[in-house]
Specification:
This protein has 254 residues and is an alpha/beta fold. It is 35% helix and 21% strand.
């Protein structure tokens, strides 16, 4: 009995499938309907903007070997270092913390720390965000906080991730650098982003599969329209100071 029921259902499905195919074949569909279907096919051209995700995915982020510049004040269960690496040919500084004690199997888990906006001249590698870094480092993570170009003593000109991809590039190269550090577990890398760093982090989450977890705090995550309106308002009210506004950059990118 069961076999008869299954045979009956198979015949019904076969007949229905043939009928469906005939009904929606080009011979039986009105030309106007075919034209409408053709017209709504999406065509998304590859953007030439340096801020486009497609463009940023085509760029390489090789990073470099991490250079230890200075050992900073030791802590109870981790050591902090002033380090440097290369990004777009620039020497970028950063803070690296390494747990004290026997390395876990496979290497220590890592947190890439994308800091928020601080006036670049006022930013310092070891003191800026020290409270947050201390909490994460004390929990047994390697923490790598890149300064970005033009921040602190890093080479290059400071910019903003809303108008150029420079800071994202610096963080992606930091990710490549820390991924190949000998004490790192490359399969356990997470990312933390605060404010401006949240915007950088969102870019990275669609650029790489190396990040296994992400945490955003007060991230700047508005859509493109909102960000443009925000910038235009600040320009109109003359509330832009320092590196935040460079007309040549804005005019070339938006």
């Amino acid at each position: 009995m069961t076999n008869l029921i299954l045979l009956f259902l198979a015949i019904v499905l076969f007949i229905g499938g043939v009928s469906y195919e005939r009904m929606f074949s080009s011979k039986n569909v009105p030309a106007k309907l075919i034209q409408k279907v053709t017209l709504i096919k999406p065509t998304v051209p590859m953007s030439s903007s340096s801020l486009a995700i497609e463009t940023m995915r085509q760029k390489s982020y090789p990073g470099s070997t991490i250079t230890f510049e200075q050992t900073l004040t030791p802590h109870a269960n981790y050591t902090s270092y002033l380090v440097s690496y290369r990004s777009d040919g620039l020497k970028i500084y950063g803070l690296l913390t390494v747990p004290i004690g026997k390395k876990t199997t496979g290497g220590w888990p890592v947190i890439l720390f994308n800091h928020g906006y601080i006036p670049p001249a006022a930013y310092t590698t070891d003191t800026s965000y020290s409270v947050m870094v201390d909490a994460l480092a004390s929990a047994g993570y390697i923490v790598f906080k890149p300064d970005y170009r033009g921040n602190g003593n890093s080479e290059g000109i400071p910019t903003q991730p809303y108008v150029t991809p420079d800071y994202v590039t610096d963080s992606m190269n930091a990710l490549s650098a820390i991924k190949h550090y000998k004490n790192t577990n490359p399969h356990k890398i997470g990312v933390f982003g605060h404010s401006m760093g949240g915007n950088i982090t969102l870019h990275e989450l669609v650029l790489t599969h190396d990040l296994k977890a992400a945490e955003l705090i007060a991230g700047v995550v508005g859509n493109a329209t909102d960000l443009v309106q925000w910038w235009n308002h600040r320009i109109a009210t003359n509330s832009i100071v320092g590196n935040e506004y460079r007309p040549s950059i804005l005019s070339n990118k938006w």
